[in-house]
């Protein structure tokens, strides 16, 4: 039977492999998409896209994530009764912040991933996979 430490090390090794592969694969995808989009809309259109998405990502990063996480944080600060959803709201705000950061980065692929982080069903599905993979078998439901 595996100990908790062995399970944690296996999980960390998987994350290292995924992170390493993403460092190799994502730039290749971005270069391909930049060349493809550059052929379709030209150099100036591509540069305008990169600059516009940087501004949009900055706006989304500044405004959206704070609104999502604010209600959960105020409930915690007031000492109101917790139903387990506050943690998910804070994690959801973190995913939105990561999405804003991805939209700021130049590249169409990271823009698409970043925009997907703003759709609540996709965001909650990703969080559900992460939470259940971490060993917390229950997924809190609204009461």
Helix proportion range: over 70%
- Count of discrete alpha- or pi-helical segments spanning 4 or more residues: 4
> Which class of secondary structure composition applies to the elements?
mainly alpha
* Cα separation of the termini: 37 Å
Q: What sequence of helices (H) and strands (E) makes up the elements?
A: HHHH
How many β-strands, per DSSP?
0
How would you characterize the largest beta sheet? none
Q: List low-pLDDT spans.
A: none
Percentage of β-strand residues: under 5%
- Global Rg: 19 Å
Principal-axes geometry comes out as: flat
**Mean pLDDT metric:** 79
Describe the structure.
The chain has 143 residues and is mainly alpha-helical. It has a domain at 43-133. The chain is built from four helices and no strands. Helix 1 (4-78) crosses helix 2.
In short:
The chain has a domain at 43-133. It is 83% helix and 0% strand.
Question: What topology emerges from the helices and strands here?
Answer:
Blueprint: H1 4-78, H2 85-104, H3 108-116, H4 120-133
Helix pairs in contact: 1-2, 1-3, 2-3, 2-4
List keywords for this structure.
143 residues, mainly alpha, 4 helices
